[in-house]
Write a structure and sequence with these properties.
The structure is a homodimer.
Chain A lengths: L3 H14 L12 H8 L3 H14 L2 E4 L3 E4 L19 E2 L4 H6 L8 E2 L12 H12 L14 H13 L10 E3 L1 H13 L5 E6 L3 H10 L2 E8 L3 E2 L1 H10 L2 E6 L2 E3 L4 E2 L2 H14 L3 E4 L24 E6 L11 E4 L4 H12 L4 H12 L2 H27 L5 E2 L7 E5 L6 H10 L2 E2 L1 E2 L12 E5 L6 H19 L1
Parallel strand pairs in A: 4-17, 6-7, 6-9, 9-12, 12-13
Antiparallel strand pairs in A: 1-2, 3-7, 5-14, 7-8, 10-11, 13-14, 15-16, 16-19, 18-19
């Protein structure tokens, strides 16, 4: 739900969007609103600032707050209804460029890595110090994972509708490794696997590592994977697995509804095609309740659940987990073969952090932050980019998917921006086809600074220039 | 080398082996030896105890120490001169059995994992506490590895004849992952790769992960890989890589001489077949100087060096490294694809431990211990097992390779021992063929206890019984 001032801001924003307050209207004074919402004056002031950040209000000195609709109510990207054929996966050069050292000196709008300001640095340090004092416990092989870590994960899984025991959980080096282990457990090289389109590049890389062919399924920017598209693919191709980021999928931030998750699960179970679910953004929902994973609706033990703490506690821990279900023996064997076990110290530290309640406290502020940050970035894109641009409305996480006006190449914009030390992720990275060449992914989770603001404005100018060509 | 009492013990042992003192002779009194060696009386007493442990002396109350030759001077295993054909690798079930939870309650003679008593627990704890206080440094992606870690590794590599910079080093989750990344960099699925025979099971598993075929090259128990065997294989098959544990190879403890390493390197460079070198036991030499790796003789940038701290500092850190040379771009890409980076905290902790000199101090005592422990285990096997048994003389590390009398199945012994809660590694695990079925590998690095002593005696009895069948 978020904190009080944010709830007030949401309600005011709804009133603006519904036209109760219109462009140029002066909002009632703070005392009036304070009484109206039954909150303190300082809460109202915080709500004002929040709406100002989101682009819905402007402050005029000595006059109060006035409604300013975001420059244009920029639409969501459309879903591309394409039909693909299975193809082998080969890496895009640019994917590696994005993680190269030079990137660290650029304006970081490319990678989907949480900003250091929003990591629970001090709290996890306390837990790591606690872990370091465990002596021998930090040094032995943690295969299939530290008991304390797996117990904490089992508790969290139960809370989101997936009742499992610690024995059902395998610790991994992040969700990326979990997805690869899942693919190895259920496929052979050359098999065909269905993924969202646009797709998280890490999933395409996982398919490449295992030597698989991919079929891309059209994906709606807010509803997620097209079930109709998946049905067609199931009829046409002998799929061996389907990999889906069910909650706040990267790059579009789509969240499948419970109803659609249920349909997805039952459709794949009926076809005897395992679902590999990546829930890495599940904890970073912007509003409402923690969305359930598809695994919560899995009656046939046909869903392999994968997740990690790389988008929340820290990417540097390299700590994830999976629930392989009936594929546990195979997943364990592959884990043992590729690197034996996951490092012990991060597992002990995270188990302590979870047990102490630090993670839940951290999530409350992180969700609030990411919600506002992506909203602000969305407004900034709407202001700076030309008409014809569409931007996703992510329901969680911190990335935005920008569809540029027809004919503008995201790759061109990426290269020109890069030359000016602005790093964005070009749409080509998110598919094996060229169909997202007119798209960009932006990291909307950074603290809002003059540098970021200028970078977004400059990107908009570059798109304008590219349009004119 | 080693400490003083151990040098005295070595010299006395040499005198016994050369026949200066014979079976049943009484050694000169402690005062005489103290003067003779120019050491204190307590040093002489420690040397006596060491030789008693090694099986060369027995104490008789009030009479002093008497020479007792080990029951039999057990020979080394013979080298099997076989010719193999390339075959796909598939895992032996028993390999996974060995890492199963039940194993923890058994007498641990199977796994090649260092015993907790000989890990630098307190020192690494200090370094981990130091690392935990680094704050943000512990939380960001360490790709391709923490600078401080790679700098320390570069210094150590230079000291063993491999001058590299931190940029030449890639941090990995142990040597197992490094070997897989190296194989991915230089092979395609289906390619043929040469390995030692018997081979470390982890290397066979790495080949299986990458989908390769293996050709096994005969290996001498003290001289290592047969260069003649390799030459034949190079003539006959289109090898794409050769994986060799050059120093104290697991399971036999063989060390290739510098001369043979040079030949290996130049033979493979001439054939344009990359050498993947696993030097994980290099720091655990029993006598003399730190042996150089083959990489030290690599003029053609044809050797990919892999190592880790899993046999020394701790297996639970999951921390290794590789020097991919001209294959760096490919190795980096594969590392990024499989799990993005190696956990930051272990890298910071180990960098601090190395920088403070703790690792070198630790190694001095660990080497001494493993040397005496394997010697003692060797004597115990010699006493308990029937004639016709052969045992390796490892020059480093802590495992022993036992060749049972002809016709005795190591797998039978393994299964019967397992039923009595004694865990050993059956010879079948170390090959894709059945040619080492009459072998066992024993972990000789445990502290010597009554339990271990009884277990070895019981193993000997089981082998006697199997002979009688």
């Amino acid at each position: 739900m978020g904190v009080l001032y944010s709830q007030v801001a949401d309600q005011l924003q709804a009133l603006i969007q519904e036209g109760v307050y219109r462009q140029g209207d002066r909002l009632p004074g703070v005392r009036v609103l304070s009484r109206q919402f039954g909150v303190s004056i300082s809460t109202v002031l915080q709500a004002h600032q929040t709406l100002e950040a989101r682009g819905y209000l402007e402050a005029r000195e000595r006059s109060g707050y006035f409604v300013r609709l975001p420059v244009q109510d920029v639409p969501e990207p459309s879903m591309l209804k394409h039909r693909s054929r299975p193809v082998p996966v080969t890496a895009r050069e640019m994917t590696l460029d994005l993680c190269a050292d030079e990137q660290k000196r650029m304006v970081p709008l490319a990678t989907a890595i949480p900003h250091p300001d929003y990591l629970p640095v001090r709290q996890i340090q306390q837990s790591t110090l606690w872990a370091a004092r465990r002596g021998l416990e930090t040094l032995d092989y943690a295969f299939p994972g530290k008991e304390s870590f797996r117990r904490q994960i089992a508790q969290r899984m139960a809370a989101i509708g997936v009742p499992v025991t610690p024995d059902d959980i395998l610790a991994t080096n992040g969700a990326q490794e979990a997805i690869i282990l899942a693919l190895r457990a259920v496929t052979q090289p050359g098999d065909i696997v269905a993924v969202e389109s646009p797709s998280f590049p890490g999933i395409l890389q996982a398919l490449e590592v295992v030597g698989l062919r991919v079929i891309e399924i059209p994906t709606h920017p807010s509803e997620g994977l097209s079930l109709e598209g998946l049905e067609l693919a199931l009829e046409q191709w002998p799929l061996k697995a389907c990999v889906v980021v069910t909650n706040h999928s990267n790059p579009m931030g789509a969240r499948m509804s419970d109803e659609r998750k249920k349909q997805l699960v039952s459709m794949l179970a009926a076809a005897d095609v395992p679902l590999i679910e990546d829930d890495i953004y599940g904890d970073l929902y912007h509003t409402g309740e923690r969305p359930r994973p598809a695994k919560a609706f899995d009656r046939a033990d046909n869903v392999i659940y994968c997740s990690s703490f790389s988008k929340t506690i820290s990417p540097g821990l390299r700590l994830g987990w999976m629930i392989p279900g009936r594929h546990m023996a195979s997943a364990r064997q592959h884990k043992y073969f590729v690197n034996l076990a996951t490092s012990s110290i991060p597992q002990l530290a995270v188990a302590h952090f979870l047990e102490q309640g630090g993670y839940d406290r951290y999530l409350r502020s992180a969700r609030q932050h990411y919600r506002e940050a992506t909203e602000r970035m969305r407004s900034a894109v709407a202001r700076s980019f030309p008409e014809g641009t569409a931007v996703s409305r992510p329901q969680g996480g911190f990335v935005l998917w920008v569809q540029l006006p027809e004919g503008v190449s995201g790759t061109e914009v990426y290269q020109r921006a890069r030359a000016e030390n602005i790093n964005v992720a070009p749409g080509l990275m998110f598919s094996t086809t060229n169909k997202f060449d007119n798209c960009l992914r932006l990291n909307g989770g950074n603290p809002w600074t003059g540098t970021i603001e200028k970078a977004v404005a400059r990107l908009g100018a570059l798109v304008h220039e590219e349009m004119g060509r």
